[in-house]
Amino acid sequence: MPGRSRRLFSVPVPAVLAILLPVMVGAAAAAPPNADRTPSGADDLKSLDTGEIELVESWDKDGWRLDLYRNHRRSCSQSGYHTFLVSSRPGLATTQEAPLWMRFHGGGVGWFLPDGEFATGKMTNIQEERRQLTVLLEETGLMKMIGGHPASFRLMMPSGCDNDLYSGIGAVDHLNQYPSEDGRPRLVDGLLAVREALAYTRANYSTTHIFAQGTSAGGIGVTTLALALGAENRRLSGVIPDTGTTSEHFPALGDHGCTEFGDLDLRGAFERIGHYALPENMPDQLVSAGQVSTPIFEVWSRNEHSVCGEEVYTIPTRDGGTITGQGQWIMHHAFAAALEKNNPGGASVSHKVCVDRPANISKNPEFKECALHGITKFSISIVGGDRDRDGEDFNRLIYDWVLARLEEPIPE
After folding, report:
1. Closest by CA position to 250, among listed 285, 297, 207, 201
2. What local confidence, expressed as pLDDT, does residue 15 receive?
3. Average of per-residue pLDDT across 44-69
4. What is the pLDDT of residue 255?
5. Which of 30, 50, 343, 387 is deepest in the core (most CB within 10 A)?
6. Which pLDDT band, with edges at 50, 70 and 90, does 362 fall under?
7. Secondary structure letter of residue 20 according to DSSP
8. In terms of pLDDT, which residue wins out, 24 or 48?
9. How far is the C-alpha of 50 from the C-alpha of 71, rounded, in Å?
10. Within 13 Å of residue 81, how many CA atoms lie on the same side as its CB?
11. What is the mean pLDDT of the chain?
12. How are beta strands 187-188 and 111-112 bridged, if at all?
């Protein structure tokens, strides 16, 4: 059996993310109408199956009716299965139409080493139970505002127990030495677990508009959801990646030691995620190519240190040139430029803010100013507003953006 897991970095969005962000998550089990844009090597859409999803328990908590589901078809990295939580206001029948808000939590990325140990960030690699998912309902920021909207949003929170950025397409986890509960090989299938959770929710809860909010690694997941739907000529009503977007420049920033991987060979992570570790599947590349129609509201704090904050670097580019700038700007500017280049309806935006990290939630006390990671989790009464805009409430800005999307036609 493998030895004890070891924690190898403290920041949840590492340099590896640049290679790992692809076209991955679909919203339903339908064959893509434009097959030549579906990356080869992806698990065939017809393999999606909600037949092994079961209701684990239902209960009431703080004004919500909660339904916890487990998918026996999608195993976690170490033990148990992928789960997801659906939260509805009491009295809202499953047949009553309502918008759906997906909330992808963060945590990092992980992979198995040749000695069987698991290189991991903060995310668990065992089955997530009610306590890991219901904590998202306690957030004081954007989730609280959405939960209080008169349209009675349903909330859906998928687990991330593969440590694969919600991106695995079903490859066998070859270095994984943990035996499965049912005799089937453990797969890297976080993407497929999300797709089946969403397909099940749509089939069993009458749904109108669909939005997805993600922080850190979850921001990667919601962005790739938009990319995947673009490959199928489909879209959501909107996605909100918070401190969790990347571009082709991320690997070069990692070469400067901006993240804490020690002496690890990151190729293990690339191989584990699979086909979608290719740089041509970066979000800036696919958005620039006009393959994404989901409105995107990207938000990030300019001195957040998962990619060096405001420290200045010169790094090489794929075309043989160089680019010089602050770490966070280098990571985000390509995506921002892509959103400006291809912005159907003019709704997408890359929004840079300055939100401080209070001492009580700061893991790196030397980095506080404009350095909050996962800003939408917190109300401005806790972290203050955007210092670059006279204390503007960034959550209210996003909330108003969501309200505008609700006035638009429901995507097919």
Report:
1. 285
2. 33
3. 89
4. 73
5. 50
6. low
7. H
8. 48
9. 8
10. 21
11. 82
12. unpaired
Q: How far apart are CA 29 and CA 46, in angstroms?
A: 6
Which secondary structure element, helix H or strand E, spans residue 301, and what is its range? Answer: strand 297-301
Rounded to 5°, the CA angle 398-327-356 comes to 50
β-pair partners for 301: 353
Tokens of residue 319, six digits? 């075309």
List Cα–Cα distances, 403 to 149, 200, 319, 328, in angstroms: 10, 25, 40, 29
Which residue in this structure is represented by tokens 């939005």?
A: 211
- Which among 70, 271, 267 has a CA at the least distance from the CA of 188? 271
Full DSSP string of 63-110: TEEEEEEEEEEEE-SSBSEEEEEEEE-TT--TTS-EEEEEEE------
User: Exposed, middle or buried: residue 396 (CB in 10 Å: 0-12, 13-18, 19+)?
Assistant: middle
| pLDDT-above-90 percentage for the chain | 48
Query: For 14, which DSSP code?
Result: -
Phi, psi dihedrals of residue 331, rounded to the nearest 5°: -70, -40
Which residues, other chains included, contact 33 with Cβ-Cβ below 8 Å and sequence gap of 6+?
A: 232, 233
Report the alpha-carbon distance of residue 373 to residue 392 in Å, rounded: 17
How many residues are given for the chain?
412
Angle between helices 190-204 and 217-231 (to 10 degrees): 70
- Surface-to-core class of residue 397, CB atoms within 10 Å of its CB (0-12 exposed, 13-18 middle, 19+ buried): middle
Name the residue with higher pLDDT: 290 or 308: 290
3-state secondary structure of 341: helix
**What residues pair up with 211 in beta bridges, in sequence order?**
101, 238
Number of neighbouring beta carbons within 10 Å of residue 4: 6
Residue-wise pLDDT tens digits, 171-209:
899 889 998 888 888 998 888 899 899 999 999 999 999
Q: Are 286 and 246 in contact (CB under 8 A)?
A: no
